[in-house]
Design goal:
binds adenosine-5'-triphosphate; six-stranded parallel β-sheet; 204 residues; alpha/beta
């Protein structure tokens, strides 16, 4: 099974990395694909360019073979729809099972995504409980609390999983940097170093 974590990663932080590792350990995932999106359908454009967000992702995970950065959404034009990404992954690796990792805040908007039912035909969803967010309230018929069930069918289950509760967000990190404060210990040192070198997220 392969974990897919999509996001703006503006910038990547320990709230992404530690929770993805929690899921990897619980489910025994072979790898976690980090898929930076180019043009988010449901939110404002990322503040950094795709190239800068990608450089930060590589700085964060290149020393860990469990993580792989997947650039297919950056290379595709138009809106970054998860359905298109899953279709292309499926056609490349038809024998693999894909688990889409989502924070509970992201899952709360899942029903408004582009063709959510077709997404569930191609992948399982693993909902990582974020601080202050309730249990999944949509798609009850897909819900399971048994991690082993995900190995018994190729797609279509939604598994809520407790993960390390890290109240870290990219928004908070951008605000700290904009105010001249340090976000150290909320993201890998190598990522912060690159932010400093490239003078990213400076206000004004
Ligand atoms: P922003 O603050 O800019 O909205 P973010 O910190 O939520 O960004 P994204 O790149 O938008 O980061 O998130 C990608 C995915 O990672 C989403 O599914 C999101 O729910 C999840 N995620 C982000 N931060 C955490 C966290 N601290 N704990 C669990 N999941 C998280």
């Amino acid at each position: 099974m392969i974990g897919i974590l999509g996001g703006t990663f503006d910038p990547i932080h320990y709230g992404h990395l530690r929770t993805a590792l929690d899921v990897q350990q619980t489910l025994g995932l072979e790898e976690i694909r980090l898929v930076p999106l180019r043009d988010p359908p449901h939110r404002a454009h990322p503040t950094l360019s795709p190239a800068d967000r990608l450089a930060l992702l590589h700085a964060a995970v290149d020393d860990n073979p469990l993580f792989r950065v997947d650039t297919r959404e950056l290379e595709r034009s138009g809106k970054s729809y998860t359905l298109d990404t899953l279709r292309s992954l499926r056609s490349e690796q038809p024998g693999d099972t894909f688990c889409l990792l989502l924070g509970s805040d992201a899952f709360n908007g899942f029903h408004t995504w582009h063709r959510p039912d077709e997404i569930l035909e191609l992948a399982h969803l693993v909902v990582m409980q974020r601080p202050g967010e309730a249990e999944p309230a949509h798609y009850h018929e897909h819900l399971t609390h048994n991690p082993a069930a995900l190995k018994q069918q190729a797609a279509g289950l939604i598994l809520p999983l407790p993960v390390t509760q890290l109240e870290i967000s990219a928004t908070g990190i951008r605000e700290m940097l904009g105010q001249g404060n340090s976000p150290r210990y909320l993201l890998p040192d190598a990522v912060l170093e690159l932010i400093r070198q490239k003078r990213l997220y400076r206000s004004g």
